[in-house]
Amino acid sequence: MAEHTSSSITIEAAPADVMAVIADFARYPEWTGEVKEAEVLATDAEGRAAKVRLLLDAGAIKDDHTLAYSWKGADEVSWTLDKSQMLRQLDGSYRLAPLEGGRTEVTYQLTVDVKIPMLGMIKRKAEKVIIDRALAGLKKRVEATSS
Length: 147
What we know:
By secondary structure, the protein is α+β, with helices and mostly antiparallel strands. 27% of the residues lie in helices and 49% in strands. The termini are far apart. 27% of the residues are buried.
């Protein structure tokens, strides 16, 4: 089983406000840095994204891929790789936990595996860069829109 990378951040907003930004895929290029394009291809019965095409440029990892999303209640979303040119695996999740004072702890977990040979250390570094930039961008975006 592939190793995963995980990191958490505290955001000064309620979980519902954080999840609203996470679920707004069309705006990902505005705050994620690595996602250059995002297109929802299918939705679930509740109107949430079920399949999303993403054009990713994360330095060592560049790809046009499709992810399948699974929503667990209002506080967790996970995804698995559906289709990719370069990736063998891109599985991850956002888990939200409410904190006192209307804040939210967001934990982002990610597992990346590429089809081309790449040292595990380089893959973990790419995962860490993706996670850290995504969490920082998410925090900035949510706090700017909820203040």
